[in-house]
Amino acid sequence: ADQGTLLEVSNIEVVYGGAILAVADVSLTIGNGEIVALLGANGAGKSTVLKAISGLASADRAKVRRGHIRLGGEDILGLAANKLAARGIVHVMEGRHVFPHLTVKENLLTGAFLHRPSRKELKRQLDDVYAWFPRLRDKQSTQAGLTSGGEQQMLAIGRAFLTQPRLVLLDEPSMGLAPRIVQEIFEIIVRLNREKGTAFLLAEQNAALSLAYARRAYVLDTGRVALEGPAADLAARDDLHRIYLGDG
Ligand code: ATP
Predict the structure, then answer these.
(1) Segment holding 27, helix H or strand E
(2) Ligand 1 site: residues with CB under 6 angstroms?
(3) Which of 14, 20, 38, 39 to mutate to test the pocket of ligand 1 (most atoms within 8 A of CB)?
(4) Reduced to 3 states, what is the DSSP secondary structure of residue 202?
(5) Taking Cα atoms as reference points, which of 182, 170, 54, 158 lies closest to residue 107?
(6) Cα–Cα distance list, 48 to 13, 150, 201 (Å)
(7) Which family does it belong to (predicted)?
(8) What is the pTM of this model?
């Protein structure tokens, strides 16, 4: 059954500072409640595609010069990041970006600015996040900067959920983390997807990992889509790494 298209990116071209072509021609779709992986070697353009979708491109002096981006059929290209957040798109950037001097709980509360929930509703949402990530409950009064890399990644995802997103753009969630922690995080992503119907676009260099959790995937090569298809089909291709991912 067709689950309906949530996001449609058509033929975008993205340029940094008016000169550096980072994304030449990328088209992709994400269905409602779908987990999609965006793969590619270092510098292939994954982060830039995410920034184009979330509206954060302009913060890096990047501009979408060509193409369309539609959410639920509506044109969203050029909207500011806060407007996009209000429409349900949240971007968890590479490197996690938590506020190091705020506690874990205070960091989570910054995610609530958007919908200003009642005290009771806010408590329910925090309890949800703590149920998904019990480590965050244990460390709720600890300064975020003093928690582990895995805990900071969980915090960044938990905080994103307080904005009640329809689509989470996750940039390199596995980066620098131990395999066991990475698995824990990916299992939570699948659980959030099932329980909340949240769609995910996962930008990852770790192809095997994301293909194990995503339904479909796109492989970028120097700013273009080189391959796309069901995750299981791509996982079965033994030339994927050699040709596109530059890692063996
Ligand atoms: P990585 O995993 O290393 O982030 P990526 O696939 O996400 O790789 P991008 O970060 O989107 O790739 O980079 C795509 C291209 O854009 C690269 O050539 C990169 O050098 C360039 N680029 C990225 N950010 C900037 C920036 N702020 N200013 C200028 N060029 C940039």
Answers:
(1) strand 20-31
(2) 16, 20, 22, 40, 42-48, 60, 205
(3) 20
(4) strand
(5) 158
(6) 10, 24, 13
(7) Belongs to the ABC transporter superfamily.
(8) 0.93
Q: For residue 166, what are the CA distances in angstroms to 134, 145, 163, 209?
A: 23, 28, 9, 23
Per the listing, tokens 């975020």 go with 144
59-92: per-residue pLDDT in tens?
A: 888 999 999 999 999 999 989 888 999 999 999 9
φ and ψ at residue 67, rounded to 5 degrees: 100, -175
pLDDT tens figures, 155-186: 999 999 999 999 999 999 998 899 999 999 99
Q: What does DSSP say about strands 216-221 and 89-92: parallel, antiparallel, or unpaired?
A: unpaired
- Whole-complex ipTM: 0.94
Please return the burial class of 50, using the count of CB atoms within 10 Å of its CB with bins 0-12, 13-18 and 19+: buried
3-class state of residue 163 by DSSP: coil
Closest C-alpha among 185, 192, 191 to residue 210: 185
* 16, 26, 38, 225, best to mutate for ligand 1 pocket (most atoms within 8 Å of CB): 16
- What residue type is 36 in one-letter code? V
In DSSP notation, 28-45 reads EEEETT-EEEEEESTTSS
Which residue, among 158, 173, 169, has the nearest Cα to 81 in the 3D structure? 169
